[in-house]
């Protein structure tokens, strides 16, 4: 790879993507730069071979592709700092920005980046936290100036963190809420299933570990099978057996409706954020 890759913001999600890139061996750490206000918080990047700085302008002047990893409410300040710390007489350049900001659309990103000199391309992404363990999901949508080659490059970089899917921007709200908020819903389910098992006398650590393994295995069954999840459920439910009794309890507790409502609430909140 001949280009320099940058990160403005070195928080948890940026770190997960960085570690996935290193795990895949797709880009050398020596050609990766990261900026943040406190260098001491970036030492784990430096230990893995990346270059660190507290000036966002260093990232813009040095890198050809830049991941935007700040919180949405800090985007304007981050770009202002980028502009204010640019080297004097820096020649115009083309930079591809890859945003991981929730609730910030392509139009808003271009508006925020407009103060920077040169040509800016934008790809909006929505990753989830399981990317930190290489089992995540990430959606992305490019603006109309981004080439297919650039899209393939982004997919390659993100493939070390899990599945990467290109979607139309109007689907980011619904699908993004599924993959972005869904892990929290599953953590609650894992905790509750473990609690129920502990209530029946099992050791907590073992119950938690097996609950997590069971959820992971169930997901793999769906991904590796052409059967509908409803049919896979039916295959576990013997007539008059334990599973169908448990399924009945879930239906009585409106388990499906609650999950549907959870996704809807998350999507509505995402739409509210995009309007601000």
UniProtKB/TrEMBL annotation:
Any Gene Ontology biological process: L-proline biosynthetic process
Enzyme Commission numbers on file: 1.5.1.2
SUPFAM superfamilies with a match to the protein in the record: 6-phosphogluconate dehydrogenase C-terminal domain-like (SSF48179), NAD(P)-binding Rossmann-fold domains (SSF51735)
Binding site for NADP(+): 8-13
Keywords: Amino-acid biosynthesis, NADP, Oxidoreductase, Proline biosynthesis
Keyword Amino-acid biosynthesis in annotation: yes
InterPro entries: 6-PGluconate_DH-like_C_sf (IPR008927), NAD(P)-bd_dom_sf (IPR036291), P5C_Rdtase_cat_N (IPR028939), P5CR-like_CS (IPR053790), P5CR_dimer (IPR029036), Pyrroline-COOH_reductase (IPR000304)
EC category name: oxidoreductase
Catalysed conversion reaction: L-proline + NADP(+) = (S)-1-pyrroline-5-carboxylate + NADPH + 2 H(+)
Family, as annotated: Belongs to the pyrroline-5-carboxylate reductase family.
Entries under NCBIfam families matching the protein: proC
Name the UniProt record assigns to this protein: Pyrroline-5-carboxylate reductase
Native organism: Pieris brassicae
């Amino acid at each position: 790879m001949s280009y320099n890759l940058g990160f403005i913001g070195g928080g948890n999600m940026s770190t997960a993507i960085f570690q996935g890139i290193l795990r895949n061996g797709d880009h050398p750490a020596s050609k990766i730069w990261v900026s943040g206000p406190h260098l001491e918080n970036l030492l784990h990047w430096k230990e893995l071979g990346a270059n660190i700085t507290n000036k966002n302008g260093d990232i813009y002047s040095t890198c050809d592709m830049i991941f935007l990893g700040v919180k949405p409410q800090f985007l304007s300040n981050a770009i202002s700092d980028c502009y204010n710390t640019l080297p004097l007489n820096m020649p115009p350049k083309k930079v591809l920005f890859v945003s991981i900001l929730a609730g910030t659309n392509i139009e808003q990103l271009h508006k925020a980046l407009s103060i920077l000199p040169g040509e800016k391309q934008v790809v909006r992404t929505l990753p989830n936290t399981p990317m930190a363990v290489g089992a995540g999901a990430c959606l992305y949508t490019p603006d109309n100036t981004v080439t297919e080659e650039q899209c393939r490059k982004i997919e390659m970089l993100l493939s070390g963190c899990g599945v990467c899917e290109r979607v139309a921007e109007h689907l980011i709200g619904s699908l993004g809420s599924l993959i972005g908020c869904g892990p929290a819903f599953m953590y609650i389910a894992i905790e509750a299933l473990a609690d129920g098992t502990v209530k029946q006398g099992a050791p907590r650590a073992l119950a938690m570990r097996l609950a997590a393994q069971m959820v992971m295995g169930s997901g793999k069954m769906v991904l590796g099978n052409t059967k509908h999840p409803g049919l896979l459920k039916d295959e576990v439910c013997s007539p008059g057996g334990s599973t169908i009794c448990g399924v009945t309890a879930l239906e009585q507790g409106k388990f499906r409706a609650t999950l549907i409502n959870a996704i809807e609430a998350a999507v509505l909140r995402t739409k509210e954020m995009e309007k601000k």
